[in-house]
Structure formats: structure tokens, C-alpha cells
Amino acid sequence: MVIVMNQNATGEQIKRIIGRVHQAGLRTHVVEGEFRTIIGIIGDKKTIMALAVEALEGVEKAVPISSSYKLVSRDFHPQSSIVDVSGVKIGGGSLVVMGGPCAVESREQLMEAAHIVKEGGAQFLRGGAYKPRTSPYAFQGLEEEGLIYLAEAREATGLKIVTEVTDVTAVDLVASYADMLQIGARNMQNFHLLKAVGRSGKPVLLKRGLSATIEEWLHAAEYIVNEGNYDVVLCERGIRTYEEYTRNTLDLSAVGALKHLSHLPVIVDPSHGTGKWHLVRSMSMAAVAAGADGLMIEVHPNPAEALSDGPQSLNPGNYMALMKDIIKLADFLNNEVR
Hints:
Elements: E1 2-5, H1 11-23, E2 27-32, E3 37-42, H2 45-50, E4 59-63, E5 83-85, E6 88-90, E7 94-100, H3 107-120, E8 124-126, H4 144-157, E9 160-164, H5 171-177, E10 180-183, H6 191-198, E11 204-207, H7 214-225, E12 232-236, H8 253-261, E13 266-268, H9 270-274, H10 277-289, E14 294-298, H11 316-332, E15 336-337
Parallel strand pairs: 7-8, 7-14, 7-15, 8-9, 9-10, 10-11, 11-12, 12-13, 13-14
Antiparallel strand pairs: 1-3, 1-4, 2-3, 5-6
């Protein structure tokens, strides 16, 4: 249930309601809007209804939330959220770009990629230090060595770092280097990991699972937010269908659906969504037009020599051309590339 306080509700009235809810053994999540405070109540439905909160002083109305993902729903938080990642804001009318190689392969490769990404106008450097791969014989990443290189690249360029964490035991280590923790598609329903990043204190980028429905995806986000971490960004990266020409089927309708159902920012990864570098431009432009808050694009100094995902990575020239097109489109749509 969501309690909407009236515009003139006092701090004492709000505090009194929260105390009453806690006395009943229920939990609260408070959102202070520009004009009103909203109190979300989590717990047993019968206990919530027995509170009769609409009779309490300062309450404008009480609204039951029918969806099982409550904290990430727009019913609970009507205003779109803005996630601040070390000073870079995702959401709120700006467009952010995360660029870089699929995997951190060496210091030289990453530094070269970072400078390319920075020159093109992106705000984030992406790169995997831990790489969960389909084959056990494929390159698995440099682990902490890769994290060190990412931190050096941030120091050299000013780019924020987003990188994947794949295991509960590695959350603290990755969080000590990264500005934003990524949960990859294969771990979208790794609930222990979701809880751990929810307690990490770091913003989280949650990718859609390989065949996950939008509802399953939002439930995964709920696990993170339920731990007290509201800084969650959703990333559409394509889902597995019967189509074989593209690596995945990029579901751009998910952008609009998520904007309707949830207050969380949404970005799109056209590189994994298509698996083909020559489709990245068109799908990037379509994602921006669909209202995405950002893009995650794979960029490699030399895709032909990449140890991971070379066929879907842009080379420096293609990346620069894409960024120019994105900036033009964002200007046309009255958006802003931060």
C-alpha cells in the first residue's frame, strides 16, 4: 500500500504514521516528492488493511498496490527516478553513453579504448574484469588485475566505471573499484547476488535476463531496491527468440513498457541486442527515439583482435560517427547528452 500525505502534512504527522506502521511489524519506504511525501508500506496485507491509515491526520489517501513488485512500480513512486553515479545523472531528460570493450584484455588495450570513448563524448567506460562465458575454454577475464586497469583508466580520462560482478564473494572487491555495479543477463535471477549488490551502497545496472519477461525483470529489480538501494538502472539487451540472424531480439518496446510500469531509468545495449556491429547504429538511434535514458555500446580499438564479442564491437571510426548522429538526434528531441 502507498500512503499519500496531503500537501500540508507536518513532519510530526509523517513521523507518527511511520511509527504506527513499524509498531504493527511492517516496513516503510519513504519518498519525499516536490509537493508531497509518499509512504510505502511493505508486509502482510491483512495487517496493512487493519491500520485504517486513511483516518490518520495528514493522510490524503491510501492506494493499494496490486503488483507484486511494489518499490520499483510507478504506483509507489510516480515521478521518474534519476540515478546519480559519482556525479553523472541517469534519467531526467539526459542521455548517457557507456562505451568500451566487452572484456578488459590488457592495460594498453583498455587505455586506448578509454581515450577513444572519452573523445567521442561518452560518460562511462564499460569493460568486464570478470567474464561469465558460455564455454569454459573462452577468455574469463583478468579479475582484480582488470579492475586495477579500469581504475587507472578512470584516473586518466575522468570516465565513470561500470563493470560486472558475477559472484556474491566478489561484490565488495568490485565495489571498491567501480562507480556502478553491473548484473549481467545470466545473473538477473541470482537472488543472493541481487541482495548483495542491494547492500553494497553502489548504483546497480541490471541487465534483462536471456529470456526474461518484463515482470520477471522488475521482480529482480525489486530484490535490489528491497535492500534499501534505490539507485537501479534497467538495461534492455535483447532476449532469446527463434530468430537466428541476430544474436538476440532487441525488444525496444520494453523501453516504453518500463517507463509506464516503473520509475527506474532504462538504457539499451544494441551491441548484445543484435550481435552485429553494422546494426548497432540503427538500433542505437531507435532506442534514443523510443525514449531510452542511455546506451551501452561495445567499442574496441581493433575488433578483429578482440578476445570477446569482436563481431558486435564498433571500431573507433564507426563509434565516432555514431556519437555524432546520437548527439544530433538528441538535440532534435530536445534531449541532452551529458
